[in-house]
From TrEMBL:
This is Phosphoribosylaminoimidazole carboxylase catalytic subunit. It comes from the Bacteria. GO terms for molecular function: hydrolase activity. It comes from Liquorilactobacillus oeni DSM 19972. Gene3D superfamilies: 3.40.50.1970. PANTHER family: PHOSPHORIBOSYLAMINOIMIDAZOLE CARBOXYLASE-RELATED, SLL1489 PROTEIN. Transmembrane segments: none annotated. Residues 118-250 form the PurE domain. Pfam families: AIRC. GO terms for biological process: 'de novo' IMP biosynthetic process.
């Protein structure tokens, strides 16, 4: 650590802006926090502009709680995705300040309310896609983006989509979430002048193949300007959309 950084921490302690314990923790920081089961990347925000995110599936409630507590020591915003309700309840007994979203299956703690800029439109083909859409929405909002939700406007009743076109076209980037055959992506891609991020979902009947059919359909879209993330990956879509929206400088259309 540079002497100027050490001096800055000492000055903050003298002004009682941070505690001596926190100052010592920061001065000893080697870029990650070592836990028995995880290494918390404390420099990710400085490198990439976005904090580390906890993938909750496959982790125990105790492990999620330990990671949350380590991140809180570094005053990082917290987002845990794919957290089942029973697991979230166990985490909340230890960290009640977290907010659980039962639809998105996320746990969130904002260090400070972010200044939200620009606009991301999140569009779903059906109501059954909303859990993936809400994972995207929660992520995008935590990362400082205005979000407009436009749900259940699939091609089976395409007039519903047309009634919302003004809202969709106002955004700097559009996330389109669809299961079944995934046709909504191509339709939206042909109607807007901004990047479209497609999310196939595992919603559909047998030959839908748990999301493989809309994934291939979206990858083969005839509309230009479309990128595709993995099946049910609302988080990944929101991360990319946030980067695009911030590159646009939060410009309002």
């Amino acid at each position: 650590m540079k002497q100027s950084e050490i001096l800055q921490f000492l000055q903050q302690v003298a002004k009682q802006k941070i505690s001596p314990e926190n100052a010592l923790l920061k001065m000893q920081d080697n870029g990650f926090t070592e836990l028995e089961y995880a290494k918390i990347d404390t420099e990710r925000t400085a490198r990439t502009g976005y904090p580390e995110v906890i993938y909750g599936a496959g982790k125990s409630a105790a492990q999620i709680t330990g990671i949350v507590q380590a991140m809180k020591q570094h005053e990082q915003p917290i987002l845990a995705t794919r957290v089942a309700a029973d697991k979230a309840a166990a985490v909340l007994t230890q960290e009640p300040q977290l907010k659980y979203d039962e639809v998105a299956h996320t746990l969130v703690l904002s260090v400070a309310p972010p200044e939200r800029i620009g606009e991301i439109a999140i569009v779903t083909a059906g109501t059954s896609d909303i859990n993936v859409a809400e994972e995207a929405a929660v992520t995008a909002e935590l990362f400082g983006n205005e979000v407009t939700r436009i749900y259940d406007v699939g091609v089976a009743g395409i007039q519903r989509l047309f009634s919302k076109l003004d809202l969709i076209r106002r955004a700097n980037v559009v996330i389109v979430i669809a299961g079944m055959e995934g046709a909504l992506t191509s339709v939206v891609g042909g109607l807007v002048d901004v990047p479209v991020i497609a999310v196939p979902t595992s919603v559909g009947y047998g030959s839908h193949l748990n999301g493989l059919t809309p994934l291939l359909s979206m990858l083969n879209s005839c509309a230009a300007g479309i990128s595709v993330v993995n099946i049910d990956n609302g988080f990944g879509a929101a991360y990319n959309a946030s980067m695009i929206n911030h590159l646009a400088g939060g410009k309002q259309k």
